[in-house]
Q: What sequence folds into this?
């Protein structure tokens, strides 16, 4: 069975993929459909949804177009999710690989370091980091990456620890392959599928984190994001619930889609593996 | 063994068991009929995939999900077990039919005390008061011969050895004095001396209680040891059925004959010339201690895996290292290939001391000693093509890729797989074929010495015989020097010139294979030999 | 004796972790952009050079880094968590005043999520491949994917604004002057929405974990042994499967206890509760990280200890 056929066997994964593609389309089409900045006040405030052409989701407290904000926000969420996950992987995978492969004191030191980061509540740390670095896309990406790498490191370490005593790895050592070659050629390829699955779930978590930061007012002040939209509408929730409702649904759908895709990837990539390894 | 009575306890008739779609065959078991009578041990023998355990699982109502009987009946005390509801079946399990399994290490709940797990059997069938249950549990533990039963009853499984756990399993299975005991490979995971004790216990209890026993095994040695009757299975069908003695001495079916013949020659090695040339490998006073780091609770523990071990191996010679688990035999092999770092002592290969080399210096010498691993499934990287797996060594040592791959093809040809295997992935091969690939990989660097660590232990007997034959042939052709590590004395007898017996990290005895088998000096060696299942029982002459 | 030693070692480890967190916190303050004195002066409303110097001297900002570090660490050790100029109270008092509300919220949510998660997870494990089992897992996935703060807002809209069932904001009804049982009831009423909101996300995690863990445990050999004894499926599930499956979940729950406070920040903000959540958010803005430091300290350490305590209770021997 091909990879996609196995993936598509999981109906939820297929639905997730479709939702995800729609959201990606939203992000790409945003500048075409709404070329104006989503921050511009274009109509009177508190316009309810479907009450006027061109403003299908109404306007917010400042008279900004909610639909435009939602589409531009998709771009920010996906970007921050992807980049921060990549950065977290860049920190976590090498640390975990080295700790797991070499073991001993190196492992002890790296794992104490990792545990230390895990002890601090993620979200609290992210808030502090963003506040210190001043809110911007870069600082948010960094903060999310810094709070998300420890689980990656622990996971990769566990995989490496179980694989480094596999007989094929020992055979590679015996024929004289160098440690670097063994790590990159023998072990890493065999941990890649679960890492990919983990990464898809991390993107989802990163999007949640970003929205929470923006909700608290710690978002990049120059970009429109879903979390900011909900946060800004918090005080008027009694008058205009829809201002918070739609961005929330957007976050929910994105995170849900990523999780479904992750589960599908898990089915497609790892089932064969569980028989193989 | 007393003569079996005629009262039939279990009767299986025309049984078909279907496997779920997508399995490698449609029926796990096809047209199987046999009976088990009161007071007899019926051995169901077969290699992996023969379906030998399936009927037993059907009897217990414990067939895996998606597997079910499609034809036939299983009569037990007059009722058809296949027609029972799950609830009715449950009422029989443990009460009338007891079962023990292969893996004593995982068959007990790790979070429950042994006593509570035995008491559960009474609870399940609503018998006795909690206090009486504990008392009975203690009696049972005494009956199965657990040392310090008062302590064992309060122990958690991890505090017991494998053999002790299997005794607990037996105590549980026998708690309600069942009419039928099903034993599914109960000694396969145990050391040979423990295996002998457990077999003895089962036979003893069976005779005392007059139970019927259905004993499932892959080992004809075990069959010879305890069976009254034998049922040989292959690919889900019965190929031979009859009393133990005639089947073992004069098997009618070709497959049974092959299986019996494949048992590495009946533990009496042929005479071999021992070479007197200069030693290739000299091991001098090698020691290795494993220290488990102490936690908050427990103090650090030291295990002397190797304690002052010295031996030599001549060029072109095969030396067998034999011992039970924990004897240090594998540690010795891993030190020789330098996957472990010995604490002290010397490892002289052709006069060069390998024992203290490290880093790059070690890496440069690695090609001289290679290893054949135990597990044919774990020893090949699932994502690396077979040709590349073999060529990796030469490439790492500077051979150009194209040349190395060409050599890999030649090697695959030599081990009987054909050069076309180069382009295929490991999962396309069977266990025996993978082991051949492992041998080709070990040969790729033209090593001076090959260490084979339980190289045939994971294989079925018939495959085992083929791989041993290949090794024998390569040995002659390439004049290989082999350090052959095994727990199986029969295998050692088959291939080794000299044998070293180890226990608790020390060498107990060493000598020519003939000498060890025919005139063992040490008590431990004698025990080991005595424990080989079926050694003294009549077994058909081997070819 | 052994137990005492164990506790001692745990405490020692916790102290080391706390110490490292304090140093980490200090380094973060140093990294913070802007001159703390200038910000303090700004808050106080006076910005002349003399006042700035005075402030620098008073807070030791003119001292070398290591001296500052020493002051900081010894200050924390003496429970001096700085001074909040905006609110005009010492950080420690502020923390103590806000802590009960947060502990009440996280504690309730923790118990709620763990109990419901384990129950839902076991139910889903027992109903694998049945519609009811899939429904539980689908719900868990949705709860997992929903932003906490959004649930907070939406539940206010539904349950407080439209249905008028429950109070929306605050810790208790201000000015009602409830005492005794009435006060307890009032506080409990105010707790329902925030605790449920916070618990939903973590419940989703525990549900998924419990299910996976139980399905895994059900594959183990000892479960087959239990079946061979003729035990009832319900007893097998409870005594053999669930007990073994619980260990990893409780380990994780202990780790999550600290993370839950991250969620509490959002819930506190969403429901305008006077917990340490809003404090945490505002403090760094004023580059006054001490209250946040105390926050880390308490919760990081607590989570760490909790996890090991629970594990110890579950493991044999």
A:
């Amino acid at each position: 069975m091909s990879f996609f056929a196995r993936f598509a066997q999981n109906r939820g994964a297929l639905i997730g993929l479709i939702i995800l593609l729609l959201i990606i389309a939203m992000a790409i089409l945003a500048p075409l459909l709404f070329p104006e900045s989503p921050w511009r006040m274009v109509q009177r405030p508190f316009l309810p949804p479907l009450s006027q052409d061109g403003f299908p989701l109404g306007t917010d407290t400042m008279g900004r177009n909610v639909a435009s904000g939602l589409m531009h926000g998709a771009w920010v969420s996906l970007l921050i999710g992807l980049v921060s996950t990549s950065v977290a992987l860049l920190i976590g995978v090498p640390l975990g690989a080295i700790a797991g492969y070499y073991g001993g004191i190196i492992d002890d030191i790296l794992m104490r370091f990792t545990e230390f980061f895990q002890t601090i509540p993620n979200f609290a740390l992210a808030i502090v980091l963003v506040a210190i670095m001043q809110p911007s896309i870069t600082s948010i990406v960094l903060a999310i990456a810094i709070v998300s790498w420890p689980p990656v490191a622990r996971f990769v370490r566990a995989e490496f620890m179980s694989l480094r005593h596999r007989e094929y790895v020992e055979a590679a050592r015996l024929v004289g392959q160098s440690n670097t070659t063994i790590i990159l050629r023998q072990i890493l390829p065999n941990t890649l599928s679960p890492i990919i699955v983990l990464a898809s779930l991390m993107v989802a978590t990163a999007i949640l984190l970003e929205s929470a930061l923006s909700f608290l007012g710690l978002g990049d002040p120059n970009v429109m994001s879903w979390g900011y939209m909900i946060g800004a509408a918090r005080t008027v929730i009694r008058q205009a619930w829809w201002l918070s409702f739609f961005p929330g649904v957007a976050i929910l759908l994105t995170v849900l889609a990523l999780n479904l895709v992750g589960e599908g990837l898990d089915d497609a990539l790892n089932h064969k593996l569980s028989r193989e390894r | 063994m007393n003569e079996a009575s005629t009262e039939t306890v279990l009767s299986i008739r025309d049984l078909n068991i279907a496997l779920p779609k997508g399995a490698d065959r449609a029926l796990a078991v096809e047209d199987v009929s046999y009976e088990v009578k009161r007071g007899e041990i019926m051995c169901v023998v077969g290699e992996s995939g023969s379906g030998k355990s399936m009927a037993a699982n059907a009897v217990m109502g414990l067939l895996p999900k998606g597997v079910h009987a499609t034809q036939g009946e299983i009569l037990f005390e007059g009722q058809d077990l296949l027609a029972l509801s799950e609830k009715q079946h449950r009422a029989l399990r443990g009460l009338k039919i007891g079962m023990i399994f292969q893996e004593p290490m995982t068959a007990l709940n790790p979070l429950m005390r042994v006593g509570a797990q035995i008491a559960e059997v009474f609870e399940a069938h609503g018998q006795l008061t909690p206090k009486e249950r504990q008392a009975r549990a203690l009696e049972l533990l005494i009956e199965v011969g657990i040392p310090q039963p008062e302590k064992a009853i309060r122990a958690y499984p991890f505090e017991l050895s494998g053999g002790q756990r299997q005794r607990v399993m037996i105590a549980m299975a026998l708690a309600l004095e069942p009419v039928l005991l099903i034993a599914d490979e109960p000694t396969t995971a145990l050391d040979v001396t423990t295996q002998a004790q457990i077999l003895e216990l089962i036979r003893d209890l069976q005779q005392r209680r007059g139970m019927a026993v259905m004993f499932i095994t892959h080992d004809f040695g075990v069959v010879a040891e305890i069976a009254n009757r034998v049922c040989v299975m292959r690919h889900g069908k019965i190929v031979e059925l009859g009393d133990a003695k005639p089947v073992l001495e004069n098997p009618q079916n070709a497959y049974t004959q092959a299986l019996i013949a494949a048992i590495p020659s009946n533990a009496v090695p042929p005479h071999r010339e021992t070479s007197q040339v200069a030693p290739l490998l000299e091991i001098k006073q090698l020691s290795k201690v494993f220290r488990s780091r102490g936690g908050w609770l427990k103090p650090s523990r030291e295990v002397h895996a190797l304690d002052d071990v010295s031996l030599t191996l001549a060029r072109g010679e095969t030396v067998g290292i034999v011992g039970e688990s924990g004897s240090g035999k594998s540690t010795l092999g891993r030190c020789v290939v330098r996957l472990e770092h010995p604490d002290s002592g010397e490892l002289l290969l052709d006069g060069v001391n390998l024992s203290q080399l490290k880093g790059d210096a070690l890496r440069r010498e690695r090609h001289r000693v290679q290893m054949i691993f135990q597990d044919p499934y774990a020893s090949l990287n699932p994502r690396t093509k077979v040709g590349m797996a073999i060529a990796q060594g030469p490439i790492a040592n500077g051979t150009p890729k194209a040349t190395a791959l060409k050599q890999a093809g030649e090697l695959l040809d030599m081990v009987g797989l054909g050069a076309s295997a180069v382009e295929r992935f490991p999962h396309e091969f069977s266990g025996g074929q993978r082991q051949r690939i492992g041998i080709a990989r070990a040969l790729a660097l033209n090593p001076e010495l090959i260490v084979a660590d339980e190289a045939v232990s994971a294989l079925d007997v018939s495959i085992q015989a083929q791989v041993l034959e290949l090794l024998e042939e390569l040995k002659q052709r390439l004049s290989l020097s082999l350090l052959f590590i095994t727990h199986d004395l029969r295998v050692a007898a088959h291939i080794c010139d000299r044998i070293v017996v180890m226990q608790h990290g020390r060498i107990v005895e060493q000598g020519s294979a003939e000498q060890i088998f025919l005139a063992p000096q040490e008590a431990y060696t004698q025990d080991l030999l005595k424990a080989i299942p079926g050694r003294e029982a009549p077994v058909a002459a081997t070819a | 004796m052994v137990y005492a030693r164990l506790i001692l070692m745990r405490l020692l480890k916790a102290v080391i972790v706390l110490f490292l967190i304090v140093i980490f916190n200090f380094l973060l303050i140093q990294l913070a952009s802007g001159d703390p004195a200038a910000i303090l002066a700004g808050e106080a409303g006076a910005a002349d050079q003399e006042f700035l110097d005075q402030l620098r001297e008073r807070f030791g900002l003119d001292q070398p880094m290591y001296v500052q570090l020493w002051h900081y660490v010894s200050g924390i050790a003496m429970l001096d968590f700085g001074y909040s100029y905006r609110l005009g109270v010492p950080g420690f008092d502020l923390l103590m005043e806000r802590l009960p509300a947060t502990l009440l919220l996280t504690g309730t949510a923790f118990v709620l999520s763990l109990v419901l998660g384990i129950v839902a997870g076991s139910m889903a494990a027992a109903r694998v491949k049945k519609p009811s089992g899939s429904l539980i897992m689908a719900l868990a996935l949705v709860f997992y994917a929903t932003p906490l703060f959004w649930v907070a807002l939406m539940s206010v809209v539904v349950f407080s604004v439209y249905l008028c069932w429950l109070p929306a904001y605050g810790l208790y009804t201000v000015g009602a002057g409830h005492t005794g049982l009435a006060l307890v009831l009032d506080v409990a009423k105010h707790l329902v929405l925030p605790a449920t909101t916070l618990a939903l996300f973590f419940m989703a995690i525990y549900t998924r974990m419990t299910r996976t863990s139980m399905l895994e445990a059900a594959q183990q050999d000892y479960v087959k042994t239990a079946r061979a004894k003729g035990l009832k499926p319900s007893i097998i599930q409870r005594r053999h499967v669930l007990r073994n499956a619980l260990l990893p979940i409780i380990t994780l729950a202990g780790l999550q206890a600290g993370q839950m406070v991250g969620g509490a920040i959002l819930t506190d903000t969403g429901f305008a509760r006077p917990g340490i959540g809003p404090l945490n958010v505002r403090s760094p803005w004023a580059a006054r990280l001490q209250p946040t430091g105390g926050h880390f300290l308490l919760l990081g350490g607590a989570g760490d200890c909790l996890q090991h305590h629970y594990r110890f209770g579950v493991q044999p021997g």
Q: What stands out?
A: Chain A has one domain: 9-31+64-276. Residues 272-277 of chain A have pLDDT under 50 and may be disordered.
